[in-house]
Amino acid sequence: MHTTNYFDTFIAIAEDCPVTAAEVPPVRDPKSTAQIQHELLAGHPYEYTWPTTTIRVKMGHLAKRHLTVGLRLNCCDVGLC
User: Fold this and answer.
1) Where are the domains of the chain?
2) 3-state class (DSSP) for residue 56
3) C-alpha to C-alpha distances, 9 to 6, 58, 69, 73, nearest whole angstrom
């Protein structure tokens, strides 16, 4: 089984990257994927794996859409079944 997780790995910024500092994603309504990821990871550093982060972001987007139209969110909506 393939995984997108990295274990005991330091991921460095590429030498030719023009960015000199990180930026917080701009606030939007509805929240962007980047904004949800930043809020999640900034509040829980080193806690979540990439798949967990992805699922939580999908659930956030789906929950907002389902609540708006009155639908019920279940695990199959985010690929967990």
Assistant:
1) 1-81
2) helix
3) 6, 26, 42, 35
